[in-house]
Structure formats: C-alpha cells, structure tokens
Amino acid sequence: MDNPYSTSRTEGTRGAVQRRLESIVRENRFTIAVVFPAVGAVTLVASAEGLLPSPLAYNPLLILFGTMVMRSPLIVGLLPRIGWWALGCLGVLTAYTYAIEIVGVRTDWPYGAFEYTIQLGPMLFGEVPLALPLFFIPLVLNAYLLTLLVLEDWSDSLVIRILTAIAAVVAIDLVLDPAAVAIGFWEFVPAGIYYGVPVSNYVGWVISGTVAVVLVDLAFDRRALLERVRTCEFILDDLVSFVLLWGTINVLYGNWLAAGVAGLFCLGLFRTDRYDREMVRTLLPSNDGRGGER
C-alpha cells in the first residue's frame, strides 16, 4: 500500500524544485533569450569566416552548452505537463528523430543528398549528432505551442491544429537551413535553389514534421498544455532565441527571404505577447527605484 506521507513529500520536493527552476529562468530571461543568441550568432559567423582560433571555432562544447541554455525555458516550462505518457511519446519521437536522420544521411531520402561538415558534438555511428533530439524536438514543440496560442479557439479542430503546426515546423526550417548552410554546419550536394537548400529538403521536413507533430499532439492533454502556455510567460523564450540567432545569421548573409520568415515568427510572438513586457521589465528600474520586478 502506498505511503501517503511519502507521496506527499515527493510531490512537495518536486514542486520546490520546479519553483526554483522557474525562478532561475525568470531572473535570467534576457540573458537566456537575447544575450545567448546574440553571442551565438557572432561566434558562429566568426567561425565560418575564419576569425576565431581553432579551439573556439565551431567548438562543439560551446555549441551544446549554448543550445541547452537557450532550450531551458521550454524544458522548465513544460516539466509540469510531462507525465509518463508524454515521456513515452517523446521517447518514441526521439527514436524516430535518430532513425529518419540516419536514413537521410545513408540514402539521401527524404531530404536530399546532404552531409554534416562539422561535428556538432559526439556523432552517433559517426554519422549524425548524438544531441540531434536536442536540436530538433524543441523546434517542433515551439511550433506546436505557438500554433495553439495563435489559433486560440480554432485549435480545437484536430485538422486545423495539425496542419498549422506542420506548416509552422516547415517554416522554422525555412529559417534554419539557409543559415546553417551559410555558416557551414552542413551542405547539400548539389546545392539547392533556396540559398543552397533543395526543395527535396522541405518535402522531407513535411514528412518528418507530420510524424513529429502527431506524436507531440498525442503526448499532451491539449487543454492543460494550452493553459500552461498561457500562464507561463517564458515557455516560448526558446523560440525568441531561435528567431534572434538564426534570423540574425540570415540577415548577415543576405538570405532575405529566410530573414523575412523569421520576421513572421516575430509577429506571432508579438501577437501572443512573448516579446513581452515582463522580459523588458527585468532591465528597467521599477517606479519605486528599487530595480526591476522579479
């Protein structure tokens, strides 16, 4: 028989840890969502242009550390909604992420012929980054969460919700891939018409994005998740980071259409108040002169 005291103590400990993690994120929102992507854009472009010495250029530990920091608001924000069922669905998505990428590298399907030109940390089977789920799954989650907020009551429709989220995932890659090719993360052979990216890549993203969105939709109680997204002001800060990092790189390399798509995500974030007053308020003095609210 379960010990109610032990269960209560466990839940209390989990709640205390959750509150502490949320406090850390809130107190460092600007650093996480603005400073880190700005520094990331500068160092990645400097690496691509040969302006950094070899220990720093494309340093995989720095890339992984920066990515984990920028992902932290999303992870902390979602933690209260991740139970065993959600964990299982995300586990299936993780396995699928590795599988489709390995198939893509070995067979050129479904994305087209491409190869990683630098090591983004340890490589699984020497072919794909071990941290691939850290790079891919949050993009799908960000697209899905923004979809729920933007659609509002329309998100009750399964078809509208899924199709819009898939479109958002593909739009994210319209920003990501041109910038990643520009700074030498990977390359397509032959180069495609969209800033070096072939149309086949986006056909592949429709396929992989559809599977990923369906698994995310299955993973969570949508109403509970939407309530969490509405009340947790920092949960989409990872998408803010994404727009600033990859949008800036696209601007610097003159990928104007890709930068324009990043601008559309900016509009969505503004509409949902995610470039919000609270983030700005952390930098400004309050009316009583004692500094920003926490």
Describe the structure.
With 294 residues, the protein is mainly alpha-helical. The chain has 11 helices and 4 strands; from the N terminus they run ααααβββααβααααα. 36% of the residues are buried. Strand 2 and strand 3 form a beta hairpin. Residues 283-294 have low confidence and may be disordered. The chain has one domain. The strands form 2 sheets. The chain has a two-stranded antiparallel ribbon. The protein has a two-stranded antiparallel sheet with strand order 2-3. The chain crosses the membrane at residues 29-46, 52-70, 82-100, 130-151, 158-182, 202-220. This is Carotenoid biosynthesis protein. Keywords: Membrane, Transmembrane, Transmembrane helix.
Quick tags:
single chain, two-stranded antiparallel ribbon, 4 strands
Secondary structure elements and their pairing?
Layout: H1 4-27, H2 29-48, H3 60-78, H4 84-107, E1 114-116, E2 123-124, E3 128-129, H5 132-151, H6 158-182, E4 186-188, H7 199-219, H8 222-231, H9 237-252, H10 256-271, H11 277-281
Antiparallel strand pairs: 1-4, 2-3
Protein name: Carotenoid biosynthesis protein
Transmembrane segments: 29-46, 52-70, 82-100, 130-151, 158-182, 202-220
InterPro entries: BABR_hydratase, CruF, CruF-like
